[in-house]
Amino acid sequence: MSHQHHAWREEQHLLEQYKEIVDISNIVSKANRYGTITYVNSHFCKLAGYTKEELLGKPHSIVRHPDMPKKLFEQMWRTIEAKNIWNGVVKNRAKDGHSYYVDTTIKPILNRDGDIVEYIAIRKDITELEEFRQQLENELSVKEENLQEMMRRSREYHKAMDESTILVRVDLNGKITYINREFTHALGYTAAEIIGQDHRILKHPDTPKVIIKNIWETIVSGRTWKGIIQDCDKNGKTVWLDTVIVPIKNMKEEVVEYLTIRHNVSEIIQLHEEIETTQGELIYTLGAAAETRSKETGNHIKRVAHYSRLLARLYGLNNKEAEILFQASPMHDIGKLAIPDHVLNKSGRLDDEEWEIMRTHSEVGYKILNNSTRPILKAAAIVAYEHHEKWDGSGYPRGLKGEEIHPFGRITALADVFDALGSERVYKKAWPLEQIIEYLNTQKGRHFDPRLVALFLSRLDDFLAVRDQFQDEL
């Protein structure tokens, strides 16, 4: 064997190894002059989801994604037909319909005469990388794929954020290390006055300790806290802030500081409070109108409201729920506006027909209020509908039983009956206190939630204080 022939054999052996390495580590296909697939390796089949038999003899368009523009493939063919190498990112579609991205290099293979005999394409699966790049592009509006442009846009993003939100940075010890100009506008402190101060300098005295504890437990564990909190500005004025507190971590995933992003929502909160105040006044006025029609005083609904709020707190409802019930309970008899005078103000006992008419006021009240989305009016609808239901199921209009009755209905029922029994009406005299207490005890577990009766009687002096404060004028 000649030295030249041996060298050729050695070169062929090396070439076969090189081809094997390419085939193992890449997604490879070959096509003839017309774009028909003549070879695919196992990586190509696995990514595309086709068998070799399904691909061989087919055009490469079998894996083409419809999102890919035709101009790209026209440019690709012009390049390789001109005997040049083409490189680019191609979005393909697998057999099952899912998309994948490949960084593709296509090289024309020439014979000794310089004519194209086939094309070989070597690809890398960059689906994860491409999807991440697109996510960044969508989130940061990065249209140009270069670091300088991304950094410029990042600076613009930071500038926009800095000018539109209140930013505060706090170290691990709770000391303020940075504020922006919007912080000064909202809270009145200059950087010199606030940097280095403990963050608690801003804490509002009405903010419950449990909220502060929850915030710190959340962010110290590395999680983000979101919520609306009230702080004090430099002059002690309340400022409501929609707040996100983000723990900032280093490369080792260790929390190194906290970034607080806030929006001043004081005007919105104040407007909400004004709406609720106006709503409460409207509810009280309408409730008073219903009581006036039935020859009762406005003090009845005041007493029922105060009884209901006090009882709600004793029962375990939170302050917000108790306050909503306080504002909603005056509407418990709003449905009486629809009851005829001859029934509503009859001095004697109602007959069966009149009683059926009277009973409709619960459902009428519910229909008047039920379509509202406002929390107070929704609560008022519940109260109107359920304050004549009884614990043992013998009440009306639906015969609800036990805890099927909303707590608002159960509470208002007890408050309303207690006040009604102790007040003079067109059809009865006021009962003495001893008789009322005896009645409540006999109706415990029948008309009323037994736990509510026990709570009521355990704090009877508080309820009597309310009654004395809002006595009816003689």
What does this structure look like?
- The chain has three domains: 13-125, 2-Layer Sandwich (Beta-Lactamase); 165-264, 2-Layer Sandwich (Beta-Lactamase); 269-469, Hypothetical protein af1432.
- The protein contains 19 helices and ten strands.
- It has helices spanning 3-25, 42-48, 52-55, 70-81, 127-140, 147-164, 181-187, 191-194, 209-220, 266-293, 298-315, 319-328, 341-344, 352-369, 375-386, 407-421, 433-442, 450-458, 460-469; strands at residues 27-31, 37-40, 86-93, 99-110, 116-125, 166-170, 176-179, 225-232, 238-249, 255-264.
- The strands form two sheets. The protein has a five-stranded antiparallel beta sheet, sandwiched between helices. The protein has a five-stranded antiparallel beta sheet with strand order 7-6-10-9-8, sandwiched between helices.
- Helix 11 (298-315) runs antiparallel to helix 12 (319-328), helix 11 runs antiparallel to helix 19 (460-469) and helix 12 (319-328) packs across helix 15.
